[in-house]
Design brief:
This protein is mainly alpha-helical and 439 residues long. It contains 19 helices and 5 strands. Among the domains are: 76 residues, no CATH class; 81 residues, Serine Threonine Protein Phosphatase 5, Tetratricopeptide repeat, CATH 1.25.40.10.
C-alpha cells in the first residue's frame, strides 16, 4: 500500500481547514439539554465532518491494501509450494531414471501426501510401480490419474502399458478399442492396436490395422509400412497353415510375395503351402524360379532337401547339377556336388572336382575331407582303413554341411528360418559352413 493512498485524505482535510479558516464562517450553537448549549465554530464542525470522511476513506484504503498484501503473500506461498512439488517430482523422475525405484517411490508418496491429486506424480508413480512388477498398484495409480483428466490420451496409454506388462493382452486390446472410438484419427493408437494384436496372435486384426496405417502413410513412410504389411500377411499365412488351411495360407503367402518381391520367406512358405496341397511340381517350380532369379542358395538347398527326401542322394545330385549350371559363381555348389558324387560312389566323376576342391579347402574345411577321400580312391594302393575313416567323417559332417546363421544377430540355427527366433529379423538367414571337427 502506498503512502500517498493512506495520507491523501488527511492532506485534503488540512487544505480544507486552511480554506475555511480564511473564510471565518462564524459559530454554530448546539442545545443538548434545557438551559445547556454549546457554541462551536462552524469551521470545527466542518473539519470534523471532513475528518470522519477522510478517516473512513483511509480505513477503506488501509483494509484494501492489507487484503492485497495478504493475497500477494498467499500467491507467493502457493508458488513456493508448487515449485517445491515440481522440484520433488523432478527429483523422483531422476531417481527412477537412475534405477533407484524404491527411493523414487518414497519421494512420490511424500509428494502425494501433500497433493493427492497431482496428475504427473500419479503417472510417474504408476510407471515406477510397473517397473517393480506391481502391476495392480500401477494400474490403480494410472486409473486415478485418468479419472482426474478423463480426456487425457496419455493416461490411457499408461494404462495400456500396465496391461501389456502384466500380459493381459485382451484387456489392452479392449482399452485400445475404446481409445480408437475416442481418437479415430490417432495413428499411434492404431499402431498400438497392431502391436497388441500381434502379441495376442490375432493376425487378422493386426492385418486390418496395418492396412489402415498403410493407407494413411505418406510417400516417405509407405515402403516401411508396406514391408510391415507383408510381414503380418506372412504371419497370418503361417497361422492358417497351423490351423490346417493351406489353401487360404497360400493366398496370404502369395499376397506377401506381391507386396515385397524380395521377400524370400514368402516364397519359401508359398512352396510349403503348395506341398501341403499336394502340388509338388508347382512348389519345386517356385523354389527353382526364386533361385534362378536371385541366385540365393537357400531355395536351392530346400529344393535339394526335398529331392533327397523323394529320391535320395542321386535325386539331390540332379538338382545341384542344375544349380551349378545356373550359378557357376556359387562356391558352395562344387563342394555339395563332390560330396553327393562320393555318396553315390561316382568316384570317376568326383575326381574331376579335385582341383575345385583344392581351391575351396582354405575357406571350406570340409572340402579337405572330400578331397582326401577322392585322392585315396585314386591311389594305386588305397588304404581301406583311411578310406573308411574319411567316409565316416564325411557322413557325419554331411548332415551339418550347411548351417544357417542370422545376419542380424549372428545366432546359428540348424534349419532355415523365415524369421530369426533370436532377434526377429526377416530374410536374415544365410548359409554357413561349420568347421570340420574331426573324423
Amino acid at each position: 500500500m502506498s503512502f500517498f493512498r493512506l495520507f491523501f485524505p488527511l492532506l485534503l482535510i488540512f487544505a480544507a481547514f486552511l480554506h475555511f479558516s480564511l473564510l471565518n464562517p462564524g459559530d454554530a450553537e448546539f442545545v443538548w439539554a434545557p438551559g445547556r448549549a454549546v457554541r462551536l465554530p462552524a469551521i470545527v464542525l466542518w473539519m470534523a465532518a471532513f475528518f470522519l470522511g477522510a478517516a473512513a476513506l483511509a480505513a477503506v484504503n488501509f483494509l484494501k491494501g492489507t487484503g492485497e498484501a495478504f493475497d500477494a503473500l498467499e500467491a507467493r506461498l502457493r508458488g513456493w509450494k508448487v515449485r517445491r512439488i515440481e522440484h520433488g517430482l523432478i527429483g523422483a523422475r531422476l531417481k527412477a531414471e537412475q534405477g533407484m525405484a524404491a527411493r523414487a517411490l518414497d519421494m512420490l508418496e511424500k509428494l502425494l501426501d501433500q497433493q493427492p491429486r497431482h496428475y504427473e506424480a500419479l503417472l510417474l508413480k504408476g510407471d515406477v510401480l510397473r517397473g517393480l512388477g506391481r502391476h495392480a498398484e500401477a494400474l490403480g495409480a494410472h486409473s486415478l490419474a485418468l479419472s482426474l483428466r478423463p480426456a487425457a490420451r496419455e493416461a490411457a496409454l499408461h494404462i495400456k502399458d500396465d496391461y501389456k506388462a502384466a500380459g493381459d493382452w485382451d484387456a489392452a486390446h479392449g482399452l485400445l478399442e475404446r481409445m480408437r472410438e475416442r481418437w479415430p484419427d490417432d495413428a499411434a493408437v492404431l499402431a498400438d492396436m497392431r502391436g497388441v494384436n500381434l502379441a495376442r496372435g490375432d493376425f487378422r486384426r493386426a492385418l486390418l490395422a496395418q492396412k489402415e496405417l498403410l493407407a494413411r502413410a505418406d510417400e516417405k513412410a509407405r515402403p516401411a509400412e508396406q514391408a510391415a504389411l507383408a510381414e503380418i500377411t506372412l504371419l497370418h499365412g503361417e497361422q492358417l497353415m497351423a490351423d490346417g488351411k493351406p489353401d487360404e495360407a497360400r493366398e496370404q503367402f502369395s499376397a506377401a510375395a506381391r507386396l515385397q518381391p524380395d521377400f524370400l520367406a514368402a516364397r519359401m512358405l508359398l512352396a510349403e503351402s503348395l506341398d501341403a496341397l499336394g502340388l509338388h511340381d508347382e512348389a519345386e517350380a517356385v523354389l527353382l524360379k526364386e533361385f534362378r532369379a536371385t541366385r540365393n542358395i537357400i531355395p536351392l538347398l530346400r529344393l535339394a532337401a526335398k529331392a533327397r527326401a523323394a529320391g535320395g542322394a542321386a535325386k539331390e545330385l540332379e538338382i545341384v547339377n542344375i544349380a551349378v549350371a545356373a550359378a557357376p559363381e556359387e562356391k558352395l555348389l562344387p563342394l555339395m556336388t563332390a560330396v553327393l558324387e562320393i555318396e553315390n560312389r561316382l568316384f570317376d566323376a568326383a575326381r574331376n572336382r579335385i582341383a575345385t576342391l583344392d581351391a575351396a579347402v582354405a575357406t571350406l574345411p570340409m572340402a579337405a575331407v572330400a578331397k582326401g577321400l577322392l585322392e585315396l580312391h585314386a591311389a594305386p594302393a588305397p588304404d581301406d582303413a583311411a578310406i573308411a575313416a574319411l567316409e565316416h567323417a564325411l557322413k557325419s559332417e554331411r548332415a551339418a554341411l550347411v548351417q544357417y546363421r542370422c545376419q542380424a544377430c549372428g545366432v546359428p540355427e540348424p534349419e532355415y528360418f523365415h524369421q530369426c527366433p533370436s532377434c526377429g529379423a526377416w530374410n536374415a538367414a544365410a548359409p554357413h559352413i561349420e568347421r570340420y571337427s574331426g573324423a
